[in-house]
Amino acid sequence: MADLARELGVSMTTISRALSDHHSIGAATKQRVLKLAKKLNYQPNHLAAALRKGQSRLLGVVVPYIEGKFFPSVIQGIEQAASKAGFSVIVCQSHEDVQLERRNVETLLNAQVAGVLVSLARNTQDFYHFDKVRSRGVPLVFFDRIPPTEQVNSVVLNDREGALQATRHLLEQGCRRIAHLAGPAHLNIYQHRRQGYLDALAAYGIAPDESLIITSDMTTDDGARAMRQLLALPEPIDAVFAAGDSAILGALQVLKGQGIRVPQDIALAGFSNEGFTAITEPQLTSVDQRCEEMGEAAVRLFLELSAAPDAPFVQRQVVLQPELFVRESSRQGVLSLGGR
Amino acid sequence: MADLARELGVSMTTISRALSDHHSIGAATKQRVLKLAKKLNYQPNHLAAALRKGQSRLLGVVVPYIEGKFFPSVIQGIEQAASKAGFSVIVCQSHEDVQLERRNVETLLNAQVAGVLVSLARNTQDFYHFDKVRSRGVPLVFFDRIPPTEQVNSVVLNDREGALQATRHLLEQGCRRIAHLAGPAHLNIYQHRRQGYLDALAAYGIAPDESLIITSDMTTDDGARAMRQLLALPEPIDAVFAAGDSAILGALQVLKGQGIRVPQDIALAGFSNEGFTAITEPQLTSVDQRCEEMGEAAVRLFLELSAAPDAPFVQRQVVLQPELFVRESSRQGVLSLGGR
DNA sequence: TATTACTACACAAACGTTTGTGTAGCTGAT
DNA sequence: ATCAGCTACACAAACGTTTGTGTAGTAATA
Lengths: 340, 340
Hints:
2 copies of one chain form a homodimer.
Chain A (H helix, E strand, L loop, with lengths): L1 H7 L3 H8 L7 H13 L6 H8 L4 E6 L6 H15 L3 E6 L4 H13 L4 E4 L12 H5 L4 E4 L9 E5 L1 H14 L5 E5 L5 H16 L9 E3 L4 H12 L7 E4 L2 H13 L9 E6 L12 E4 L2 H17 L9 E4 L2 E3 L6 H6 L3
Parallel strand pairs in A: 1-2, 1-3, 3-4, 4-5, 5-11, 6-7, 6-8, 8-9, 9-10
Antiparallel strand pairs in A: 10-12
Helix pairs in contact in A: 2-3, 5-12, 8-9, 10-11
Chain A binds a DNA duplex through α2 and α4.
């Protein structure tokens, strides 16, 4: 900047204001500055600016992990929206551990991020570590896995609706004894998916049967275990809706191992629309989570918050609508061909 | 820091040096400073330090994308090793686009990252945008997809060895007409995999047949297309080795669609050991890439480089050994059962 | 004519650290 | 007695921006 100022015979103030399009700089001067900046290949030092302004162009993201489809896709969406707004993204993983989550939040604050986007770790039950974020006036947005009670800004999928769609779909296929593989109840998403399952049953006048609802951590193994348990029931089931695709995959593997036909004998539906749902045989019906939209929405929310830094807190929540992808594991055509 | 200095009646210099364990500060003073810092919950402003030192505790990473298994896992490894060394990671995607890659590198430099780790975009053919990184004295490490000719520090998989193992395995199963689905030749990895394939054939005294080598972008569709092309050959093949798992998946789908038995009629092997290789039927044999080790190695290399900032440039390369995961799509037991 | 308002710019302080240089007292070797 | 080499600390200048305040000159309004 000093070079530019010297070259043009103006002060650094003028340079700075010209570059940031300040109103008190004449259009002609702005042009001259911009042109010379390009010519000298001037690279602004964001660090200095951040230091002075107490705020950087970095956006901090904390996720439990970045495997599978969901979180990478959300991050993808975040990245895209953020870079459009001139922000860079810094991603941390909590590895499903509150302690690491706390450390991550500290790290991000120390990096003077402009905002923090968080999806909670599985075992996060208290939320004091986020107070510091708020008290520093840094916009805070939760996505997907959000604190159950706290007053926070968040963007979530309508998990209940997704589960309801999937379960209703199974009902429409003629299934009546539908089991549910549920996830840890203290995570909002699993709670809502379970509720959607129950609501769909209720709409068909079916009383919920607790022995058909199996709660676990939703891994493939958990799904397999649960499926075996369900097969051992005296009265056979005719469908399974799982709150996650890994679990339903485990279930599918058990069924195939025992020669039980899917969907003819038992229909399956999962949640997340993971990549492998289109690879298994039969392909798995699943609820798509609008991952990228979720990322974009989170960034949008952040931008709104940071546009009005000290506006009084108003809780905002964006709710995305899921979409059911019907595949072979539950398809009607196949069911009727199965001659049930 | 000013608070600390005032409280203890010393200068800020002393505080700063005490905190960074400078030799010219007495042990007693250091203790006092550290204790008070903890008590007042002093949070260092890394930005200011970075500005002053011209270097932050951020590590920049540029990858083509973060889907599938490979890059997320590498990033995982990077993250782990970096945080152990007190660095945070900032990830950018080039989306396989040189232009974006260039922009990403600029962004990272502007963020004053301490180092840059890069895996090249598919269409990156010139490397001027990395000169700026070097000229600023910022350590630069390439991983997996590296510039073919340039003198650079890098960590790569022994792709040739992996391909050789896979092809030799197919040969050991009795296959003799083995096709190869190759990737873009200007990317080192695909070149080496192709070479490994050729070397394995040579070791068995088999002359390469150009009509059996099909080059593409290695998507699932590409794999399917290639498989159809191979099936149309006058002389039938008995195995396919693909330089990527997506392509071999496409091939598998075509084979199953046509009722051709795998591995009895045609054996398959892929590369990457993607998650879905254990889900398909039959499960797919594939070469594992040691993703996390690659990330760790890249960080280690970076740390070495930044430990000796202005040492004369010595090209360093870490070569990781791949591991072949043999699964049903190529298993001997099944082959012999197939009665060939 | 006086007041206000706007344009166009410069001065200099601030952001929170790090670090080269300076100083003073002390120890041990020459 | 002198010098070198240590320890232990303070001063003040940097790092590259942003921004409140000040100062002119010009135009519009009262």
